[in-house]
Structures are given as structure tokens and as C-alpha cells.
Write a structure and sequence with these properties.
homodimer, 115 residues, 5 helices, 13% strand, DNA-binding
Chain lengths: 115, 115
DNA sequence: TAGTCTCATCGACAGCCATCAATGTGCAGG
DNA sequence: CCTGCACATTGATGGCTGTCGATGAGACTA
């Protein structure tokens, strides 16, 4: 099983092209979107994502200290964000480099009623 | 204790005026913002919010059937969304009417890097 | 090949959460 | 008052989640 995942969320881009404020969400749309927002519903993951976004790309080993969490915990949170499609990881030698997926953030902005 | 709450989140509007993609979030900002996003991280609450937004305002008794949940569960979810500051409730006679708070959605859009 | 470094996974634990039946609270009409 | 209705709260339960120590899987170096 590879480190790159995010399987059941691939249909997310096709779903939900209209803002949440326009029409009621279907159960299917909600079931796909909720995990993405739930991934952002943790303070450690929010800070982690902002670190990745601010640095452009960042190695896992540079997250442990600023977040004040153990290595397994960091690995857990990067996995959750990756499964939500919010970040992607690329292996370079011994290091794992993470980058944000701007499209996913834009999709959430659209969901929240952006023009 | 009144039905209107959202106490610890009142400082939210002062905090976090810059997008998540610009600079790393402080632990305090993350601790305030994460519960708001966590409130959206549930499919039932996402659909509930979209129902409120689409109708403009809606009574609690009109949420039970379309969401397919029991009355206590609906009450629980409206409470969570209200504590997150995403909706507000107003009592009219026997009924409770809910409305969205557009500022909170706009704040989240800004957080997600919107222009 | 052995050693070391980075990261992923496993196992376990504590705490939180969604759900609903039962009950309580407040409002309106008779 | 008393009854009925809308909603809130309580208590219980099953499942999920954040956390970390221990261990495993790759990757580089000597």
C-alpha cells in the first residue's frame, strides 16, 4: 500500500460545485465533504497545514518541534490531511516533503458561499 | 442559562484576520478556529446548515424529517452549530427559528486563503 | 553488511462524540 | 389549572480519535 492515498475522495471535485448557501446538500455530498472539514477541525492539523502552506513545502522532521508533538502523532496528522486531499507528500531520499493542494482549499471556499 | 450562547468564540473575529496560507497560525488562533471547523465536520450538521441557509430561516421541527434524525439529535446539532457561531436561534412562541451568521462563513473563507 | 536516520505502523489508553429513549421545561389554548 | 405541543436536557451506549511508546520498513553511508 503506497503512501499516496485519498481514494474515496476523488469524486469530491465532481460533487459540490454549488455553495452551501444556495441549495441543501445531498446526503452523499455531505458524506464526502464532512471528512475534509473534519480534517481541519483539529488545532494541531490547522497549524500543521499553515506551516506547510507558509513554507511552500516542508519536511516531516521540521514539523515535530514547532508543533510540540511526537513523531508518530505528526505522522498520524499528515496522514489525515493527505487522506482529505488537503496536502500531498513526496518522498525524497529519507525525507518526506509535504505540499498543500490549493484546489481543495478553493473548493472549500466555494462551498462556504464564496463568489 | 439562555439558549443563545457562543461565549468563548467571541474573540474569534478579532483573531485570524490573515489567511492560513500566509503565515503559520499561533496555537491560540488554532485553538479558537478548530472547533468552528470541527462543527462543520459532520455530515448531519453540514446538511442542517445548508437547510438553514437555503431556507433563510427554518424551524427546528422542520429539520427532523429531512435529516432523518431524532428530535434530541437535532437539538444537539443545532446547539453545536450555535456554539460555533455559525447559526443563531430565536424563540417565537413554541418554535425555535434558526438563521445563518454570514460573517462566520466569510471569516472561514478568508482563513482558507480567499482573496 | 552493519549502522543510522527518517518515517510508517501497531497496540494501548483516555477522552470525546453521535445517537436515542426517557424526562424535564416552557409556551399556548381551553 | 390542565392538556398538548415544541424544544432542551439527562443518562447510557457504542464508536471514533488524539496521543505516545515500541516496533517495523526503507534509504543512505561507511
Amino acid at each position: 500500500m503506497p503512501a499516496r492515498l485519498a481514494q474515496p475522495l476523488d469524486r469530491l471535485d465532481e460533487l459540490c460545485c454549488s455553495p452551501l448557501t444556495d441549495a441543501p446538500l445531498s446526503p452523499t455530498e455531505a458524506a464526502v465533504l464532512a471528512p475534509v472539514l473534519a480534517a481541519l477541525g483539529d488545532p494541531v492539523r490547522l497549524r500543521l497545514l499553515s506551516l506547510v502552506a507558509a513554507r511552500g513545502e516542508i519536511c516531516s522532521c521540521h514539523l515535530e518541534k514547532p508543533l510540540g508533538k511526537s513523531q508518530p502523532t505528526i505522522s498520524h496528522h499528515t496522514r489525515v490531511l493527505a487522506e482529505a486531499g488537503l496536502i500531498v507528500g513526496e518522498r525524497r531520499g529519507k525525507w518526506m516533503w509535504w505540499t498543500v493542494v490549493p484546489d481543495r482549499l478553493a473548493l472549500l471556499r466555494r462551498l462556504l458561499g464564496g463568489a
